[in-house]
Amino acid sequence: MPPFLSQRYDQLRRQYGALSSTCVVDSPITNAKFLSRNKDLALVAAGFSGGQGKSGVDAGPTALIEAGLAIQLRDHLRYNVHYDDKIHYCNDIVPDSDPDHRGMKNPQATSVVTQKLSSHIFSHAKEGRFVVTLGGDHSIAIGTISGTAKATRERLNRDMAVIWVDAHADINTPETSDSGNIHGMPLAFLTGLASEKGGKPFGWLNSEELRISTTKLVYIGLRDVDHGEKRLLRENGIAAFSMHDVDQYGIGKVMDMALAWIGNDTPIHLSFDIDALDPMWAPSTGTAVRRGLTLREGSFIAECVHDTGSLIAMDLVEVNPSLEQEGAEKTVEAAISIVRCALGETLL
Ligand SMILES: [Mn+2]
């Protein structure tokens, strides 16, 4: 039993009964509980790479679209896809000079780009559309999650949960980060563990409506967590299922526990970093870590989250097609299949 769960296990048992070996859902319905029109979907291509140091991740969305993702969502999965047919690089709003701030690299650029993305995502989510955002590096989640969190509060008067599937915890504060790369910090800013005054980079996030609670954040797939991040996870009692838990319980039980933690009545934003998968399945990514999820386990996570009927948005990030030759195609295929599973593709 992961330590954060043992404290609440009795409570969870009372609430949900004994945890079964399948996903905690009433039935595998595809009805979306929290969307206004069941099959209305916005696809956003966020080709931003300034949250980390390697070029090429900005081409991730293009690779996914060129491999047919938008067409598959429309023709195979029958979504009404709203796609503006452009990759949002946002180069026009990136400042010429961008000195480090509290050790963060590209702080102004990442702040203005994610702020713009936040209102873009908000404009779709407030219509009750499902929003799929393709990264780009994982700093874009500052924009996507704040946008859906705000829309969910305005539209449904609810807080949403975030399932963060990743090898890394991405919850460094500027002070605990060794690299200064903001793609390792999105959850610190989104939860308010890190904050800034207005006018400074990420000062715009200084508003409760844009944030998520640490109690509604659940990790799956962790295996490369920095020292300071481990402390933040412990001190804040954040629900985290590492690869150790996946080994011990199997992915089925991990999903039971993760979804029981969130509960049946909470909208879910899924933020999926392709580096959660083992490099065997997804080698073409900036910070690959061995001993990760199999492609089947990653797909199962996406299927289970879909089956809750609570999913309202997802990010698929960190596909960097320039890092590998053969591996790039494999990584793109894996990413597409994760998105398809999250959107209702089934094996039978
Ligand atoms: Mn990440």
UniProtKB/TrEMBL annotation:
GO terms for cellular component: cytosol; nucleus. Binds 2 manganese ions per subunit. GO terms for molecular function: arginase activity; manganese ion binding. InterPro entries: Arginase, Ureohydrolase, Ureohydrolase_dom_sf, Ureohydrolase_Mn_BS. One of its GO terms (biological process) is arginine metabolic process. NCBIfam families: rocF_arginase. This is Arginase. The lineage of its organism: Eukaryota, Fungi, Dikarya, Ascomycota, Pezizomycotina.
